[in-house]
Amino acid sequence: KTMTTAEIRADFLHFFEEKGCKLYASSSLIPEDPSLLLANAGMNQFKEYYQGTKTMREIGATSCQKCLRTNDIDNIGDARHLSFFEMLGNFSFGGYSKADAIAWAYEFITSPEHLGLPKDRLYMTVYENDDEAIELWHSHGVEYDHISRLGEEDNFWAAGPTGPCGPCSEIYFDQGPEFEGDAPGDDGDRYLEFWNLVFTQYDRQEDGSMPDLPHRNIDTGMGLERIAAIMQHKGSNYEGDVMRSLISLGEKLSGVEYHASSDSTDKSLRILADHSRAVTFMIGDGILPSNEGRGYVLRRLLRRAVYHGRLLGIQGAFLTTYAHEVTEVLGDQYTALVENQSLIDGIISAEESRFGATLNAGENMLDAELDKLGEGATLSGEVAFKLHDTYGFPIDLTREIAEAAGHCVDMDAFDQAMTEQKERARQSANRDAWGKANNVWAALSDKLASTEFCGYDSDDVDGCKV
Ligand code: ATP
Ligand code: MG
Ligand code: MG
Ligand code: MG
After folding, report:
1. Residue 211: exposed, middle, or buried by beta-carbon count in 10 A (0-12, 13-18, 19+)?
2. Coil, strand or helix: which one is 379?
3. Per-residue pLDDT reduced to its tens digit, 417-434
4. Candidates 1.10.472.20, 3.30.930.10, 3.40.920.10, 3.40.50.720; correct CATH number of 5-237?
5. With a threshold of 0.90, does the pTM exceed it?
6. Atom of ligand 1 at shortest distance to CA of 195?
7. Segment 28-45, tens digit of pLDDT
């Protein structure tokens, strides 16, 4: 059976409405919850229902939520992670039970009227001590050898550092032996996680304690791009209908064919498809480029997209072409994209041309510096800092270009130079009254910067310790 993204989305929401859930529109990518930088799961907008400060008349809710996960930005090269994605979900705030949630999930994915997935290719994982979930799956015919127990990291879910959390059970699809991987939950793509059923029952506090929530809840999330790829018999998120149309646009703009050139051009095509879509949705929700918080995430994504367009040899400004394709493909579902199209175009164009100029100047300097280095030598932190300071050339781009040429960047020295610069700014600001006022801003911006983009924080990037 084959289904389009739009068909899956509509069928899911309708299925849960029939079960008595109330249909909610996606909330904005800008969460109401101040502890959260960007919406990262369907349950975000229902937090108060979980905590019991709000009650719902219906037995639960269903939605298709826009999500953005900065922690996955480093993973865009793989087959299953996007920065922006759509999450289908069904929710209960004491209304229906864990048994119902499991029964309905199994019905939806296996019934020929809905997804009709073959049962022998489905695998479930549960939290290590959750015998109840094992017995529930088994009661519907899932064999014990298709159910495994996983620990806290995989199967205990929390929306954030505090708030509702609990054990979960995830559903995996076996994509077949041509994919790498031995078991659900490993790093391979053979067993692809596509739906997470969370049984939220605790409310984690600042001090780490976990009192019970007022009732036992259900919070599920199914990645729409993942299930679309499965339903379209594709091994990657990027090859379902929606993402593939953006890959195709990149092919057209660059003249580079996907899966026909090199891994690095494929990766650039994926980054472009992903980042351009994320950027379009972020601006559509009113986020503007800036140097902190979510505006910083936007700026980084946008600039990285522009940079990868360059790598692919795309000439001139091109990012609004992507935005138009995103709106073409998803505007029926997300009408804000249509309503805000001129805003989206304007912001993208301005940022793209500003960054284009930066790139030209910075790239010339960086190329000259890299030419001077011996094979495998490390690029000095001072040069990286100068690129940042003089040309506004983002450090992650410096690293990406340097690493592509086989050089690591001395990040300790770069960080040191950044710290010294902040210190100098602070001291000069202390000298007079005007400076004192500036100092307040400096402190404030430090504070805001603590919500800074952490998408590139990883221990090991292409063999370079950071
Ligand atoms: P993974 O282990 O693959 O990173 P996850 O366990 O972090 O996924 P959950 O927090 O359980 O994901 O989110 C629920 C569902 O949302 C996942 O089962 C998956 O289908 C989808 N999902 C999560 N992260 C992404 C992403 N970066 N891109 C696309 N879909 C995603
Ligand atoms: Mg994840
Ligand atoms: Mg997972
Ligand atoms: Mg999961």
Report:
1. exposed
2. strand
3. 999 988 887 777 665 544
4. 3.30.930.10
5. no
6. 18
7. 999 998 888 999 999 999
